[in-house]
Amino acid sequence: MAKVTGLEGVVAAETDIGLVDGERGHLIYRGYWAKDVAVHFSFEEAAHLLWYGELPDEGELFRLKERLQAYRELPASLPPLLDAMPKSLPTMSVLQAAVASLTEPDGTPAAWPPAPSQAERLTALLPAIIAYRYRRSKGLDPVQPHPELDHAANYLYMLTGTIPEPAHAKALTAYLILGMEHGMNASTFSARVTSSTQSDMYAAVSAAIGTMKGPLHGGAPSEVIAMLEDIGTVERAEGWLRAVLEQGGRLMGFGHRIYKTKDPRAEALRTVTEKLTGDTDSFKLALHVEQTAIRLLEEYKPGRRLYTNVEFFAAAIMSAIQLPAELFTPTFTAARTVGWTAHVLEQAGVNRIFRPQSVYTGPMPTLGD
Ligand code: ACO
């Protein structure tokens, strides 16, 4: 019997939220190409599409922005909790604990079933928590959200205290939208599993954050930057990449369980990165590393169809807008919160507890006479 690992190919749920077609390289959000949503719509419009199934009209968009603005304010319980956590704790662990600690705004414990207002609140809160913790860890005063700025711009503003360049906010918006949703990925599955036990929305998202933390899922972009920095120059690329593959190592930012062709998010983000940094040495190096790595992966892993994944150019964008590398995975988390919460809301409508089986391969007790 073949080894049972990784649930590959197993269908865990039906969903109206997103389609990932790994053979054709398609990513669809509720009937729209994700790459088009990322370029033509705002973060708030894309989130509305995923949560409510349609793009908002003008009034709905205005009201959603107002609610997100109100939700950005940290509840009184969070600053002392965030300050009490050890400085050495990774931001992902801080986020997981902070989200798990949330009650409803009036202090009552959260309960099942999940509500759209919780999805909106978590989405608004995550960047505010990340920014608070980041600034405090650097000995800086927290920056309150700006009443006039949209979601992505507000995130950069709360981190830096400066109104960001529109091109930076636009590039970050494209990244956040492309990171929002990706079918039954490991962290979304985690969120749905937790919610299927009738646990509350905050517990489900906290579980998803724990899953996202691992380097095989959300932890890759900072490793991509470390790789590009270590390679340093175009001339060093091939030798560096070959050395990793010779030792049986993995190239971060390449390969995907589902995509066996180009990851459409990587393609879209390459265009966004090029607009932002097209004539810089760092972009030229990234392009060279991409092309060399794909050629070498075909040489060392023939037939595995390993291409650039979303994390590769995500790293390039985040570095171009000067987001510190330690915030790459948290920022991806802030984006994916939209997808997680959309899935948790969907799960509640069709809920049955997830309970797969395992095949026992251990020893059997010795039977007595
Ligand atoms: N570098 C080198 N070899 C690789 C890579 C890589 N990046 N990815 C897969 N392979 C090889 C494996 O060694 C394996 O080779 P083998 O058949 O000789 O044993 C083969 O390709 C298949 O790999 P699996 O691990 O079975 O593929 P899986 O679908 O389980 O893994 C994953 C997908 C985890 C993304 C993998 O490609 C990887 O580790 N990539 C690097 C980390 C990364 O970029 N993660 C971000 C993913 S995107 C996201 O989560 C949003």
From TrEMBL:
PROSITE patterns xref list: CITRATE_SYNTHASE (PS00480)
The protein, known as: Citrate synthase
One function term, GO molecular function aspect: citrate synthase activity
Keyword tags: Acyltransferase, Transferase
Keyword set includes Acyltransferase: yes
Pathway(s) it belongs to: Carbohydrate metabolism; tricarboxylic acid cycle
Reactions catalysed according to its record: oxaloacetate + acetyl-CoA + H2O = citrate + CoA + H(+)
SUPFAM superfamilies from the UniProt entry: Citrate synthase
Family listed: Belongs to the citrate synthase family.
Stored InterPro entries: Citrate_synth-like_lrg_a-sub, Citrate_synth-like_sm_a-sub, Citrate_synthase, Citrate_synthase_AS, Citrate_synthase_bac-typ, Citrate_synthase_sf
Keyword presence, Lyase: no
